[in-house]
Amino acid sequence: MAEAAWDLVLDSTKSGRPITSAYSDIREAPGYRFALADARTAIDTGRFHLLRAADAIDSAAHEGRILEAGERARLRGDTAVATLSFRNAVDLLLDIGGTRSFALSNPLQRVWRDIEVAGRHGLNNVLMNREEYALSLLGMDQAFPDYL
């Protein structure tokens, strides 16, 4: 979803549309360029964490073993970072897109709604995932041992 938002906003930005009377071309606005770079970095950060989690799962499966509690907790930490990163990226891209991003005719508003809902799904629950990872880092018992 963050990649879809990226594609939509990048296409719009490359058109060089104006931003009110301040800039005749959005590409000339430093703040918008910084937001674009930050959004791309957030997407890449999220992808890094998801790929690291997938590698850990694949390795355990290849070795025929069940992930240990600490490994599962780190997976949940990776999931939390990815979820927050993707939601942050879309938020930045919405800033770049402006109010037109929320028009029902704009596909970006659907991406925004979908990522906000998906980011709060049980498996992506940032608050619970961060809690579980923190407990693991402290050597404490898992709060949700049957979850993931």
From TrEMBL:
It comes from the Bacteria. Pfam families: Acyl-CoA_dh_2 (PF08028). The keyword Transcription does not apply. Coiled coil: none annotated. Residues 1-124 form the Acyl-CoA dehydrogenase C-terminal domain. The keyword Isomerase does not apply. GO terms for molecular function: oxidoreductase activity, acting on the CH-CH group of donors. Gene3D superfamilies: Butyryl-CoA Dehydrogenase, subunit A, domain 3. Keywords: Oxidoreductase. This is Acyl-CoA dehydrogenase C-terminal domain-containing protein. It comes from Streptomyces griseoruber.
